[in-house]
Amino acid sequence: MPLDTGLLYGEMVGSAIMHIAIPFAAILIIQSLRDIFPKQTALVFLGLCVIASFLVQMAFLTVLQANACSGVKNFGGIAQGALIAAIITGILVAIPVFLEPMRHMVSQLFFEHQVLLTPELRVVHDIVAKAGAEIEKTGSTKMVGGAINEEEYDEQTLYEISAGSSYWGAFAGAYGVAFGSLTAASCPGASGP
């Protein structure tokens, strides 16, 4: 039975949507594990995304094989396809994790990036905040936020990573199904032309 391209395209879209959600779920897990892995946050995040991607791709590729082969007949092909897809996810999700400009390219569409407040900037920030508070008392204008402390910066970075990774993860999900289908949708015992 030939591969149903309509199903393949539908699964590519479905996988892209699932891969948009995976980084946000990973961030929620990271926030609960931050005390355990304070320095390895990026690696734990990548690991969670790759594992979740593998499981999602296994499900999509199983459905694809069941349709193409009139049943699931080659779990090895499905696992191999899901592994290919998970590797693609790992590579694409690593882009916003380790390349700040690529992370900001997407995250700044949703919220403004705040700079890290160094000790020197703390002094300047306090003076400006005090002056701004005095001006605000007069009712003429409101102060706009400036820099943030290290803890707030780390939190901001997590949200930027999740936004950037969702964007890149969507492509990984779609490409993963496409490339994974090459091994997952091959039916054992099928004769060639």
Would you kindly provide a written description of the structure presented here, covering whatever features stand out?
The protein has 193 residues and is an all-alpha fold. The chain has helices at residues 5-33, 41-68, 75-98, 100-107, 119-137, 150-184. It has a domain at 5-110 and 156-184.
Figure out the total of helices: 6
Overall average pLDDT: 83
H and E string: HHHHHH
What structural category characterises the helix and strand content? mainly alpha
Beta strand count: 0
User: What is the general shape?
Assistant: elongated
Oligomer: single chain
Radius of gyration: 23 Å
Distance between the termini: 13 Å
- Bin the strand percentage: under 5%
> Which percent bin holds the helix content?
over 70%
Largest sheet: none
Which regions contain 5 or more consecutive residues with pLDDT less than 50?
none
List its salient traits.
mainly alpha, elongated
What secondary-structure arrangement, pairings included, does this model have?
Blueprint: H1 5-33, H2 41-68, H3 75-98, H4 100-107, H5 119-137, H6 150-184
Summarize the structure.
The protein is mainly alpha-helical. The protein has helices spanning 5-33, 41-68, 75-98, 100-107, 119-137, 150-184.
